[in-house]
Write a structure and sequence with these properties.
254 residues; alpha/beta; Rossmann fold; 6-stranded mixed beta sheet; 3-stranded antiparallel beta sheet; 9 helices; 9 strands; 22% strand; disordered C terminus
């Protein structure tokens, strides 16, 4: 089995209601897969099935033996009055070595936050700390549930570029659930579009041009998906030399 996780004809239900039916997919090493779809389309349910939290009603989810998973939840409910540093948070529930902690924080590009209070972090900083926590296990596959919800568009774009950098640095596969169509294609190798079943899947260009995708999201959105794709069309020597990126993001936001 070369796939890290393989989903075979899976049907998922929550609270007795079928939310996804007949889904099959393979998640390969080193590949970035983005799962999109309207609200209620089964995106988060599929992610929960991949990590083993939601057992399928029908079908099978097979994971490679000894698979190391990292998971970044949609959001973390924190008690703002609780005094806790980033370093302490990363050592819950099990202590981690200073080396492992430092390495994960460096991968997430938040090493400077190690001794800051969680309650003092911005939304973007907290997301990166959650990313660092997921990277402690040196995962072979990293799963993220709408990780940029609540971030502004430059913050979203920066986070997606960070995910791509993490994939390149540690060689893990990435599976992301997202509803931000205007930035989602920046790093994806493959896109799976759900609406209670798999509507379409393939490379960003294939999905963008499919009739099913346009029926779900409207023909007007397909232009927005080209955003940030140019990041791949030239050398990577100067990844931050895109002065017009944020403006482009803004143009397509609405």
């Amino acid at each position: 089995m070369t796939a890290l996780i393989e989903v075979q004809n899976v049907t998922l239900a929550r609270d007795g209601q079928v939310v996804l039916e007949g889904v099959s997919a393979r998640f390969e090493p080193g590949e970035i897969t983005t799962i999109v779809g309207p609200n209620g389309s089964g995106k988060t349910s599929l992610l929960k099935a991949l990590i083993g939290e939601l057992p399928p009603m029908k079908g099978k989810v097979r994971r490679a033996p000894g698979l190391r998973l990292g998971y970044v939840p949609q959001k973390l409910a924190l008690d703002p009055t609780l005094p806790m540093t980033v370093a302490r948070f990363l050592s819950l529930p099990r202590r981690v070595s200073a080396d492992a902690r430092g390495r994960a924080l460096r991968y997430a590009e938040v090493a400077a936050l190690e001794h800051r209070q969680l309650a003092d972090l911005s939304g973007g900083q907290l997301q990166r700390v959650l990313l660092a926590r997921a990277l402690l296990a040196e995962p072979q596959i990293l799963l993220l549930d709408e990780p940029t919800q609540g971030l502004d568009q430059p913050g979203q774009a920066a986070f997606y570029q960070q995910i791509e950098h993490v994939r390149d640095s540690i060689g893990c596969a990435v599976v992301m659930v997202s509803h931000e169509l205007h930035v989602v294609m920046s790093a994806s190798d493959r896109v799976i579009c759900l609406n209670g079943h798999v509507c379409c899947e393939g490379t960003p260009d294939v999905v963008r041009n499919s009739a099913e995708y346009r029926a779900l999201f409207g023909a007007g959105t397909h232009g927005a998906l080209a955003l940030y794709r140019h990041h791949h069309d030239h050398s990577h020597d100067h990844p931050h030399d895109h002065p017009h990126d944020h403006d482009a993001a803004h143009d397509h936001a609405h």
